[in-house]
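Case study B.
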Amino acid sequence: PPEESALERRLREARQEAQASNQRFWARHNRAFRQEKEEFIYSRLKAKGLEMRDESGQKATLNAEEMADFYKDFLSKNFKKRLQYNRDWYKHNFRITFLMGQVALVRALRWLRRRKKNVEQ
Amino acid sequence: GLFVGRLRNTGARQIPCRFVHLYHVASYRLITFQYFNFLKRMYVTQCNKDLRQRAKPKSDSVVSAFHELQQLDQEKKVVHKISSVSPVHQSWSEMSSRNELREMKSAAETEDSVIAGGAESKEDRQWKEMKLRLDDLPGILARLSKIKLTALVVSTASAGFAMAPVPFELTCFLLASLGTGLASCAANSINQFFEVPFDSNMNRTKNRPLVRGQISPLLAVCFAASCGIPGIALLTLGVNPLTGALGAFNIFLYTCCYTPLKRMSIANTWVGAVVGAIPPIMGWTAATGSLDAGALLLGGILYSWQFPHFNALSWGLREDYSRGGYCMMSVTHPGLCRRVALRHCLALIGLSTVAPVLNVTTWTFPIISLPINLYISYLGFRFYRDADRSSSRKLFFCSLWHLPMLLLVMFTCKKSVLEKEDKGELRGGSHEMAMEIRLP
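Model:
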């Protein structure tokens, strides 16, 4: 967008960067979750001697108790990654909010100056 | 579509010659808005293959970025646009509210960009404009501050106030309730401010205002500050410093301890239980000005209540918590989760029995409250043994009515102040001291 001050550009870039990094992390994370869930279900069903789909063609699922093991594993596996993401997200968030504050302040001052000019006119 | 409706309404109020102009502009907007909508939908479906819930809120938060963006450019043109567009817009420009001015400005700016803009890059089109709609703002802020939860917090604080062994003072009560409510709003807003990407990933929370881009993070922080600072000031100056300190401490505990801990260790549940236990203590200290055993007892009851309540709730959300990366007992230590819930249900019985010993209530209280305490303990035991969705739901819903009922019974069994003064107990002395503390 044209007529963007340096400050506003930094804000936009910060937001775009945060957006991109969030997207990257979560896309990868959710994909991994889904994949590992499928693998887990498959391996458990195999251990039980069942197929992925039963006779009627319905997808076989495990009950909540069995899934709980998977959830526990998944959570503990990605601990370090999550902490790192947490740190990054907090940094992004604070920087963006701070920049927003600066931009809002600048705009408010501009608006006040304009108003004064209008009044004088 | 909504925004167009708004412009059209404005148009309808115009005098005929202006109306034509505005309608023309409005139809331009209609085209652009729909075009943008189409693109937004495309963006969502493309991402759907990779992300599930992430997609929609993501595009919304992309959308929110543009709110700042559009505001910023073409500011010089705004002045001219204001004078040329319509009388209604001009009357808006005289209004003091900055928000409305901003809204009008972006209306003007968008028109500019639509009419003058022409071919923008694909990148820009994805930065769709987000409007801060003034009529939505109360609803948005209510959701931001989790108004229902705040109402519950205020009612527990009121219960604490009511249970205090002092004559009831209405102004103090109202000030304490208001201060607690404001502090709670602030804490909840900051919590949502910190948790945007995590909330967007979970079904339960993906419709929160910051996730959907209905307001900017800056506004959330400003709102939190504008609630928290007056709230704590009100408590410190209007009630007493102890209550203010407790309120500030609670906000700190919730935002800076509980929220980060949620992602790091299961200890967050215990911290969260303390956060829930502090409001009644605040109510009590607001009334008496001192922290006595009765306050701690009430706090203890709330503390114990949190466990069956939260553990039962989290049982059904294990998948979401696991994927979202929250460390909750129900996911990592399911056995512990159920044990703790049962343990604290039983603790509630114990605490109810201690109440008359501390002269908070008469001996009728443990007797009357025994049925409901036994019932929740029974459900806690079922949850412990069965560990399935239905028992967790039963326990959760029971906890929702159990607490109000327990507090009500407690209040009706409250030991009368006069009775104690007649007995000439120590509490009478501390009561006078409390009165002194209240006088500035």
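Residues 138-290 of chain B form a domain with the Tetracycline Repressor; domain 2 fold (CATH 1.10.357.140). The remaining cases will be described in the next quarterly update.
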